[in-house]
Amino acid sequence: MAHPSQTPPRGHVAFVGAGPGDPELLTVRAMREIQSAEVILHDQLVPEAILSLASEGATLLPVGKKGFGPSMKQDDINALIIAHASSGARTVRLKAGDPGVFGRLDEETEALDAAGVPYHVTPGLTASTAAAASLGVSLTKRGRNSDLRLLTGHDVKGFAEQDWRTLARPGAVAAIYMGKRAARFLQGRLMMHGGAPDTPITVVANASRPNERQLPSTLATLPADLDAADLDGPAVLLLGLAPRAARAIAFARQEVS
Ligand code: SAH
User: Fold this and answer.
1) Ligand 1 center to 22 CA (angstroms)
2) Which segments of the chain are extended strands (E)?
3) Which domains does the chain have, with CATH numbers?
């Protein structure tokens, strides 16, 4: 297998994490791989600001799904990746955030293994770390939470069941991906398991992008707050976290811009 710091050989697939959207938050390796790619099969969530780093002659192919909209079948995506790599093109499979966090990475690598196509994975910043950084808070804290969970609000069977009892405990912190539409379900499950109504939950939409929005909320008010805010774009729900020094951050942003 090629060392990832070199340009991958032809017939090889680079799975690349695009991070949360701000091109400044790409890794140096991701940036180089995007720039040297001949074909980029990308998630719909990867913004233009990152796609525009590709070389002029590169072929950009949107695959994967956006929110709850129409999506390409996973088998068709796998076949497309394999076809491009096998044709000898320098192929990048560009995924939002980190490829290994709710990104169906294994489904694609298993297909490549079965087809005998080699690959490597370049990690990316996942949405929850970018969201917590925007709030200026830590995802873990001594004496508060000794674990951090990454959950999906939604899985193949619908709203995803979780270990609600431990999530409802004071101090629990979890980042909930794909959770906007599951807000009422999440609220119901957490309250049923004893979650305090004033438990903070902060929603961060479009984390790290120019249109980022932060919505501080609580377990008691989450569905109503989300309805009222009508947030567009991908959003991560940070259970157990409230923005700290939010005004100072907003002020610093104004100073920078
Ligand atoms: N692999 C991605 C997650 C893909 S699942 C990662 O590591 O971040 C898609 C979900 O990711 C969205 O529904 C949303 O919950 C979250 N997400 C992705 N980008 C985001 C962003 N910039 N801001 C907030 N949430 C984001």
Assistant:
1) 13
2) 13-17, 39-42, 59-62, 91-95, 119-122, 149-152, 154-155, 158-159, 174-177, 200-205, 213-218, 235-239
3) 13-122 (3.40.1010.10), 127-243 (3.30.950.10)
CA distances from 4 to 32, 92, 210 (A): 11, 13, 31
Q: State whether residue 166 is helix, strand or coil.
A: helix
Location of structure tokens 């490829």: 99
pLDDT above 90 as % of the chain: 84
Place of tokens 């701000």: 22
**pTM above threshold 0.85:** yes
Determine which residue's CA is closest to atom 11 belonging to ligand 1.
Answer: 177
- At 119, phi and psi to the nearest 5? -155, 165
Six token digits for residue 175: 């980042």
